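My current task is to audit a protein record that another person submitted. My question to you is simply how this chain folds and whether the tokens agree. This is what I was given:
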Amino acid sequence: MTKAYRILVIDDDAELTALLVEYLEPEGFQVEIACNAETGLERIAAFPYDLILLDVMLPGLNGFEALRRIRGQSQVPVMMLTARGEEMDRIIGLEIGADDYLPKPFHMRELTARAHSILRRTKESGTSHGRRLRVGDVQLDERARVVLRNGLPVELTTVEFDLLRALVESRGQIVSRERLIETVLGRPFSVFDRSIDNHVSSLRRKLGRGHLNMERIRTIRGEGYLYADPVGLVD
């Protein structure tokens, strides 16, 4: 029998959390609820979870600060939920360490699909065959899921690591947004889906500029993204 994934929902909207339990449990998830960030953080410290659904607009400690504290103790995947649709909010959440960001209101089928995608990526990351890539001053270790820049660790989410790897593997070539959404995010392409662009923005900020102040990840308007630094494989 397949093990049920354990999800913690941190949200003070009682109606929404009841709907999440009603919809997700028949889909094979074990769902627990925390109505504020403080309770959620206590649960995360005490129990293992496969995925956290975290609301931004919480009473007391907000979702962004809660995410910072989660990342201080755990790399558990986090999907942020919010009624705020501002682009900067999404970028901030991804920079802090969110794996995905879903604005309210949303369709339950979309949330379920994104949750399965995150969990699938997490599972696959644990079975990597272990190449190492050197990208100028950046090194990727697939087995350890570690990125170093000038020998210092760069904290990336699962999505950001997979995104960087996809771009590096096609170094010097344009990688379309469609391909990145389908292979990195694991969902069908939509012209209205800006998630991959937010992940790229976050990844750029974390990596900084490359040799001679060069932008490492270039936007090719109307086509996609290109990783510009030279790269060599390391055994």
